[in-house]
Design a protein that fits this description.
The complex is a heterodimer of chains A (about 140) and B (about 120).
Chain A: E1 17-22, H1 43-75, E2 81-84, H2 91-94, E3 99-107, H3 108-112, E4 126-134
Antiparallel strand pairs in A: 2-4, 3-4
Chain B: E1 2-5, E2 8-12, E3 17-24, E4 33-40, E5 45-52, E6 57-62, H1 64-67, E7 73-87, E8 93-100, E9 106-111
Parallel strand pairs in B: 2-9
Antiparallel strand pairs in B: 1-2, 3-6, 4-5, 4-7, 7-8, 7-9
Classes of the chains: A alpha+beta (about 140), B mainly beta (about 120).
Protein backbone atom coordinates (compact mmCIF):
# COMPACT_ATOMS: atom_id res chain seq x y z
CA UNK A 1 0.00 0.00 0.00
CA UNK A 2 1.48 3.38 -0.93
CA UNK A 3 2.05 5.60 2.05
CA UNK A 4 1.59 9.32 2.33
CA UNK A 5 3.92 11.67 4.17
CA UNK A 6 2.78 11.89 7.74
CA UNK A 7 2.29 15.27 9.37
CA UNK A 8 2.11 14.94 13.14
CA UNK A 9 2.36 18.01 15.36
CA UNK A 10 4.30 18.38 18.62
CA UNK A 11 1.33 17.07 20.61
CA UNK A 12 1.37 13.87 18.57
CA UNK A 13 -1.81 14.73 16.70
CA UNK A 14 -1.89 13.97 12.98
CA UNK A 15 -2.63 17.01 10.84
CA UNK A 16 -4.92 15.67 8.20
CA UNK A 17 -5.74 17.40 4.94
CA UNK A 18 -8.85 16.03 3.33
CA UNK A 19 -9.79 16.25 -0.31
CA UNK A 20 -13.07 15.45 -1.99
CA UNK A 21 -13.69 14.49 -5.57
CA UNK A 22 -16.57 13.06 -7.57
CA UNK A 23 -16.39 9.33 -8.06
CA UNK A 24 -17.63 7.29 -10.95
CA UNK A 25 -17.97 4.35 -8.61
CA UNK A 26 -21.68 4.11 -8.06
CA UNK A 27 -22.78 0.91 -6.45
CA UNK A 28 -26.07 -0.52 -7.57
CA UNK A 29 -28.87 0.56 -5.26
CA UNK A 30 -30.50 -2.20 -3.29
CA UNK A 31 -34.15 -2.91 -2.61
CA UNK A 32 -34.84 -2.64 1.11
CA UNK A 33 -38.48 -3.67 0.67
CA UNK A 34 -37.63 -7.03 -0.92
CA UNK A 35 -40.48 -6.47 -3.32
CA UNK A 36 -39.04 -4.77 -6.40
CA UNK A 37 -38.23 -7.05 -9.32
CA UNK A 38 -34.83 -6.88 -11.05
CA UNK A 39 -33.20 -5.05 -8.14
CA UNK A 40 -30.61 -6.62 -5.84
CA UNK A 41 -31.97 -7.25 -2.37
CA UNK A 42 -30.47 -5.36 0.52
CA UNK A 43 -28.25 -7.75 2.43
CA UNK A 44 -29.19 -6.58 5.92
CA UNK A 45 -32.92 -6.57 5.21
CA UNK A 46 -32.62 -10.04 3.69
CA UNK A 47 -30.66 -11.34 6.67
CA UNK A 48 -33.16 -9.84 9.11
CA UNK A 49 -36.03 -11.41 7.17
CA UNK A 50 -34.38 -14.83 7.22
CA UNK A 51 -33.75 -14.54 10.96
CA UNK A 52 -37.39 -13.56 11.48
CA UNK A 53 -38.59 -16.61 9.53
CA UNK A 54 -36.22 -18.84 11.50
CA UNK A 55 -37.56 -17.44 14.77
CA UNK A 56 -41.15 -17.94 13.56
CA UNK A 57 -40.42 -21.55 12.60
CA UNK A 58 -38.84 -22.16 15.98
CA UNK A 59 -41.91 -20.71 17.72
CA UNK A 60 -44.18 -22.79 15.48
CA UNK A 61 -42.26 -25.97 16.28
CA UNK A 62 -42.56 -25.18 19.98
CA UNK A 63 -46.32 -24.55 19.61
CA UNK A 64 -46.83 -27.80 17.67
CA UNK A 65 -44.85 -29.72 20.27
CA UNK A 66 -47.02 -28.24 23.03
CA UNK A 67 -50.23 -29.02 21.13
CA UNK A 68 -49.11 -32.60 20.55
CA UNK A 69 -48.31 -33.07 24.23
CA UNK A 70 -51.73 -31.69 25.18
CA UNK A 71 -53.46 -33.97 22.65
CA UNK A 72 -51.68 -37.05 23.97
CA UNK A 73 -52.55 -36.00 27.50
CA UNK A 74 -56.22 -35.71 26.51
CA UNK A 75 -56.21 -39.17 24.93
CA UNK A 76 -54.41 -40.72 27.91
CA UNK A 77 -55.67 -38.98 31.06
CA UNK A 78 -54.82 -40.26 34.56
CA UNK A 79 -56.37 -43.71 34.82
CA UNK A 80 -56.02 -44.50 31.11
CA UNK A 81 -54.47 -47.78 30.01
CA UNK A 82 -52.02 -48.22 27.18
CA UNK A 83 -51.46 -51.75 25.89
CA UNK A 84 -48.40 -52.96 24.04
CA UNK A 85 -46.75 -56.25 23.16
CA UNK A 86 -43.33 -54.74 23.79
CA UNK A 87 -41.94 -53.66 27.12
CA UNK A 88 -41.16 -50.07 26.22
CA UNK A 89 -43.50 -47.19 26.99
CA UNK A 90 -43.15 -44.49 24.29
CA UNK A 91 -41.31 -41.35 25.41
CA UNK A 92 -44.31 -39.14 24.60
CA UNK A 93 -46.38 -41.12 27.13
CA UNK A 94 -43.62 -41.30 29.74
CA UNK A 95 -43.47 -37.50 29.71
CA UNK A 96 -47.14 -37.23 30.69
CA UNK A 97 -46.56 -38.55 34.21
CA UNK A 98 -46.09 -41.78 36.13
CA UNK A 99 -47.19 -45.13 34.74
CA UNK A 100 -47.56 -48.49 36.43
CA UNK A 101 -46.67 -51.52 34.31
CA UNK A 102 -48.69 -54.74 34.51
CA UNK A 103 -47.05 -57.49 32.48
CA UNK A 104 -49.14 -60.60 31.78
CA UNK A 105 -47.52 -63.66 30.15
CA UNK A 106 -49.81 -65.33 27.61
CA UNK A 107 -49.86 -68.72 25.90
CA UNK A 108 -52.11 -69.96 23.10
CA UNK A 109 -54.12 -71.80 25.73
CA UNK A 110 -54.95 -68.48 27.42
CA UNK A 111 -56.18 -67.05 24.12
CA UNK A 112 -58.34 -70.12 23.39
CA UNK A 113 -60.26 -69.52 26.64
CA UNK A 114 -61.89 -66.47 25.02
CA UNK A 115 -65.41 -66.49 23.68
CA UNK A 116 -64.32 -66.74 20.04
CA UNK A 117 -62.38 -69.58 18.48
CA UNK A 118 -59.32 -69.11 16.33
CA UNK A 119 -57.23 -71.53 14.34
CA UNK A 120 -54.20 -72.49 16.40
CA UNK A 121 -50.97 -71.29 14.74
CA UNK A 122 -48.55 -74.05 13.77
CA UNK A 123 -45.75 -72.64 15.88
CA UNK A 124 -47.95 -71.97 18.88
CA UNK A 125 -47.86 -68.63 20.67
CA UNK A 126 -46.29 -67.37 23.82
CA UNK A 127 -45.67 -63.77 24.74
CA UNK A 128 -46.28 -61.02 27.25
CA UNK A 129 -48.91 -58.34 27.09
CA UNK A 130 -47.96 -55.11 28.85
CA UNK A 131 -50.65 -52.93 30.38
CA UNK A 132 -49.51 -49.46 31.34
CA UNK A 133 -51.75 -47.63 33.80
CA UNK A 134 -51.25 -43.92 34.04
CA UNK A 135 -51.22 -43.08 37.76
CA UNK A 136 -50.33 -39.33 37.75
CA UNK B 1 -27.90 16.11 -10.60
CA UNK B 2 -24.96 15.21 -8.41
CA UNK B 3 -22.17 17.78 -8.24
CA UNK B 4 -19.12 17.94 -6.01
CA UNK B 5 -17.57 21.41 -6.09
CA UNK B 6 -14.71 21.71 -3.65
CA UNK B 7 -16.20 20.44 -0.43
CA UNK B 8 -19.76 21.33 -1.37
CA UNK B 9 -22.09 18.57 -2.43
CA UNK B 10 -25.13 19.46 -4.49
CA UNK B 11 -27.60 16.81 -5.45
CA UNK B 12 -31.20 16.48 -6.49
CA UNK B 13 -33.40 14.79 -3.94
CA UNK B 14 -33.20 11.02 -4.44
CA UNK B 15 -30.35 11.11 -6.95
CA UNK B 16 -27.60 8.52 -6.98
CA UNK B 17 -23.99 9.61 -6.85
CA UNK B 18 -20.64 9.00 -5.28
CA UNK B 19 -17.68 10.96 -4.05
CA UNK B 20 -14.20 9.88 -3.13
CA UNK B 21 -12.67 11.32 0.00
CA UNK B 22 -8.93 11.13 0.52
CA UNK B 23 -6.70 12.13 3.38
CA UNK B 24 -3.05 13.08 3.68
CA UNK B 25 -0.90 13.58 6.74
CA UNK B 26 -1.34 10.17 8.34
CA UNK B 27 -1.27 6.59 7.13
CA UNK B 28 -4.49 5.00 8.30
CA UNK B 29 -4.50 1.33 9.17
CA UNK B 30 -7.11 -1.31 8.46
CA UNK B 31 -8.71 -0.86 11.88
CA UNK B 32 -9.11 2.89 11.52
CA UNK B 33 -12.41 4.29 10.31
CA UNK B 34 -13.72 7.42 8.63
CA UNK B 35 -17.12 8.45 9.96
CA UNK B 36 -19.13 10.26 7.28
CA UNK B 37 -22.16 12.14 8.63
CA UNK B 38 -24.86 14.37 7.20
CA UNK B 39 -27.10 16.48 9.39
CA UNK B 40 -30.12 18.64 8.66
CA UNK B 41 -30.20 22.28 9.66
CA UNK B 42 -32.05 21.41 12.85
CA UNK B 43 -29.30 19.00 13.87
CA UNK B 44 -31.11 15.80 12.91
CA UNK B 45 -28.70 13.13 11.73
CA UNK B 46 -29.88 11.91 8.34
CA UNK B 47 -26.98 9.76 7.19
CA UNK B 48 -23.98 8.33 9.02
CA UNK B 49 -21.70 5.50 8.13
CA UNK B 50 -18.23 4.34 9.14
CA UNK B 51 -15.91 3.48 6.27
CA UNK B 52 -12.74 1.45 6.15
CA UNK B 53 -10.13 3.18 4.07
CA UNK B 54 -8.04 1.86 1.22
CA UNK B 55 -4.88 3.82 0.54
CA UNK B 56 -6.24 6.55 2.84
CA UNK B 57 -9.36 6.92 0.67
CA UNK B 58 -12.95 5.83 0.79
CA UNK B 59 -15.99 6.27 -1.44
CA UNK B 60 -19.33 7.53 -0.19
CA UNK B 61 -22.30 6.48 -2.27
CA UNK B 62 -25.67 8.17 -2.15
CA UNK B 63 -28.59 5.94 -3.03
CA UNK B 64 -32.09 7.07 -3.90
CA UNK B 65 -33.33 6.02 -0.48
CA UNK B 66 -30.70 8.16 1.28
CA UNK B 67 -32.30 11.47 0.29
CA UNK B 68 -35.59 10.61 -1.40
CA UNK B 69 -37.64 11.39 1.69
CA UNK B 70 -35.62 14.37 2.89
CA UNK B 71 -36.77 17.96 2.67
CA UNK B 72 -34.86 19.92 0.03
CA UNK B 73 -32.62 22.60 1.51
CA UNK B 74 -29.30 23.06 3.23
CA UNK B 75 -27.53 20.27 5.11
CA UNK B 76 -24.07 19.96 6.62
CA UNK B 77 -21.65 17.09 6.42
CA UNK B 78 -18.24 16.19 7.75
CA UNK B 79 -15.77 13.35 8.13
CA UNK B 80 -14.25 12.36 11.44
CA UNK B 81 -11.29 10.00 11.33
CA UNK B 82 -11.10 7.57 14.22
CA UNK B 83 -7.81 5.83 14.93
CA UNK B 84 -8.31 2.46 16.65
CA UNK B 85 -12.02 3.00 17.27
CA UNK B 86 -13.87 1.67 20.31
CA UNK B 87 -17.29 0.11 19.72
CA UNK B 88 -20.38 -0.35 21.84
CA UNK B 89 -22.33 -3.62 21.89
CA UNK B 90 -24.38 -2.49 18.90
CA UNK B 91 -21.26 -1.96 16.80
CA UNK B 92 -21.38 1.83 16.93
CA UNK B 93 -18.14 3.76 17.25
CA UNK B 94 -18.14 5.52 20.59
CA UNK B 95 -14.51 6.62 20.92
CA UNK B 96 -11.01 5.85 19.72
CA UNK B 97 -7.36 6.31 20.48
CA UNK B 98 -7.63 9.52 18.51
CA UNK B 99 -10.52 11.27 16.81
CA UNK B 100 -9.55 13.76 14.11
CA UNK B 101 -11.86 16.18 12.33
CA UNK B 102 -9.92 17.92 9.56
CA UNK B 103 -12.66 20.31 8.40
CA UNK B 104 -15.42 22.49 9.72
CA UNK B 105 -18.91 21.30 8.78
CA UNK B 106 -19.32 21.48 5.03
CA UNK B 107 -22.36 22.17 2.90
CA UNK B 108 -24.69 19.77 1.16
CA UNK B 109 -27.43 21.32 -0.94
CA UNK B 110 -30.40 19.10 -1.56
CA UNK B 111 -32.37 20.31 -4.54
CA UNK B 112 -36.06 19.87 -5.11
CA UNK B 113 -37.32 17.66 -7.92
CA UNK B 114 -40.57 17.58 -9.86
CA UNK B 115 -41.08 13.89 -10.41
CA UNK B 116 -41.23 11.41 -7.56
CA UNK B 117 -39.61 8.00 -7.90
Amino acid sequence: MPETDTNINEQGIPQIVMSVSPSSVVQAPTDKTLSVSEMPADAKVTGDAIRTVADDLSDLASDVSGLLANAIGTIFPVGAIYVTAGDDLPDALQQLGDWMEIAIPLTWGDIKRGTRSYAEPETGYTGTIHFWLRTT
Amino acid sequence: MFIVDGNTITLSRGDTGALEISAEGYNFGENDRALFSVKAGNGTLVKQRAYQMTNNSFTVTFFNSDTDLLTPGGYTWDVRYVINPYYDDAGNIVDGDQVLTPNNPMTMNLLTVVGDI
